[in-house]
Amino acid sequence: MKKLLFVLFAASTAFVSCEKSLGENEYEVTGTIGDTIYNGKKVYLEKQGGYMGFVPVDTAVVENGKFVFKDTVSGPSLHFISFEDKPQEKANFILERGRITIDINTDTIYKSVQGGSFNNEKLHDYYTKTMANNNKMRDFQKENQSVMMKARQENDTATMNKLQKDYEALTKDMETTNKEFVKNNPKAYVNVFIIKQLLGSGNAERAEVEELYNNLDAEVKKTKDAKEIEEMLAKMKETEEAQAKVSEGKVAPDFSAPNPEGQTVSLKDAMGKVTIIDFWASWCGPCRKENPNVVAMYNELHDKGLNIIGVSLDKNAEAWKKAIADDNLTWTHISHLKHWEDPIAAQYGVRSIPATFVLDENGTIVAKNLRGEELKAKVKELLNK
User: Fold this and answer.
1) Counting CB atoms within 10 angstroms of each CB, which of 34, 100, 182, 371 has the fewest?
2) Residue 318: in which H helix or E strand, if any?
3) Cβ pair 181, 206 in contact under 8 A
4) How far is 164 from 168, CA to CA, in rounded Å?
5) How many CB atoms lie within 10 A of CB 361?
6) Helix, strand, or coil here: 266?
7) pLDDT at 10 > cutoff 70
8) What is the DSSP letter of 111?
C-alpha cells in the first residue's frame, strides 16, 4: 500500500512539473465557452480609458471553446472581455499575476464566472454575496414602477414617501453588505471599487469610509485606484474643515479675484446691508434657471441695501461674460477662471453649485443655499431689521 501511495505521489508531481510555471509578473487568462458557435470569433481584452471608456489591450480567437491571453502585468487592475459580434457586452475580471479563469456566460456575459487567482476568486465571492441584494432592488423597482408613476400623477405623497423609504432600506442593506465584505476581506483588490462606490453614493460618512480604507492590506493600498481613494478622502476632509469655518453664525472669510474688466475686487468691496455670495457658472443649468428669480429680487431690493457678489466657477472668460450679459446680472462678478480648482470655492467648502451664502451687515453668515421665495423672504427679514 505504501508503495502504491508513493507511485501516485510521484506521478502527480511529474504531472505538475510538466506545466510551465509563470514568471514573476506574468499572467495567463483562459476563457471557456460552451457554445460552439463562438469558435473562430475574435475576443478582445480591454481596460478602462479612452474616449469611449474602453481601450483595447489584446486580441485572441476562440478555438475549441477556449481562448487565452498571456503577457505581463505590474499590478492588479480591472479589465474586460468582449466579443466581436457583441462589443458592448462585457465580462469583467481582475488582471493580475497568475492563472486566471473565466467561464463565459453567453446568455448574460456580465454574469460570467471569474476564478483561478486570489483576486478573481474574491471578485466572484463579492458578486455572489451581493446578488440577493441586487435582485431585491431590481424586483422592487419592477413591481413598484407603475405604483410610483400613479402616485406622482395623483400627488399621493404618502405613497411616494413609503416607496422611497422602502427603497432606501434596500439600499442600506446593500451598503451593509459592502462594508462587511471590505472589513472581512482586507486583501481583496475589489475593495477599492466598493469604497469608491460608497464615497460616490454620498450615504456614508467620510470617517467611516476612511476607517474601511485604513484597514485595507498594504499591498492593496499601493495600487493606482487606492491612491485615488486617498486623494478623494483628503479632499473630502479639506471640504469638511472649510465648511466648518463657514457655518451659520461665523463671519464670512474675505476673498478677492478679478472682475470681468480684470480689476481685483474683494468681498469687503461688495458688502451691503445684506450680501449674497452666489457661487455659479455659465455651464451650470440649475444656476442659469434660478438667475431670473435672483435678478427680480435684486432689482426690487438693491436700493434697500441688498448687494450680490457672483463667484463664477467658469474657465472660459468669454462664456462667463456672455452669461452675465445674457442673464442681465448687473451685480458684482469675480472669477479666477479655474473651474473646480477655484480657491474661493475651496475656501468656502463648495463642492456643488448653485451655492449661496447670505450675510448680514456685519458679514456674519445667517443662511446658506436658499432659493426662490425662501431666499427673498430671508433677505427682506434682514433688511427690515
Assistant:
1) 34
2) helix 317-326
3) no
4) 6
5) 14
6) strand
7) no
8) G
Distance CA 216, CA 150 (A): 46
Helices 285-301 and 372-383: crossing angle in degrees, nearest 10, is 30
Helix, strand, or coil (residue 258): strand
Q: What is the pLDDT of residue 233?
A: 93
pLDDT at 49 (0 to 100): 87
Strands 77-83 and 86-95 turn out to be: antiparallel
Contacts 24+ apart (CB under 8 A), 318-322: 319/282, 319/283, 320/260, 320/281, 320/282, 321/260, 322/282
* CA dihedral sign of residues 283, 287, 292, 295: negative
281 SS3 class: coil
Phi first, then psi, for residue 353 (nearest 5°) are: -130, 155
Q: Which three cell numbers stand for residue 353?
A: 453649485
The answer to whether 328 touches 295, Cβ cutoff 8 Å, is: yes
Q: Which of 351, 383, 356 is nearest to 367 (CA)?
A: 356
Domains of the chain: 23-116 (2.60.40.180), 136-245 (no CATH), 256-383 (3.40.30.10)
- When computed from its CA atoms, the radius of gyration of the chain, rounded to whole angstroms, is 29
Percent of the chain whose predicted confidence (pLDDT) is above 90: 67
How many other C-beta atoms are found inside a 10 Å radius of the C-beta of residue 357?
23
Q: At 19, is the pLDDT very low, low, confident or very high (cuts 50, 70, 90)?
A: low
Spatial distance between the Cα atoms of 89 and 111, rounded to a whole number of angstroms: 11
Phi, psi angles (nearest 5°) of residue 127 = -60, -40
Helix 206-214 × helix 224-245 angle, to 10°: 150
Dihedral sign for Cα 218, 222, 223, 224, please: positive
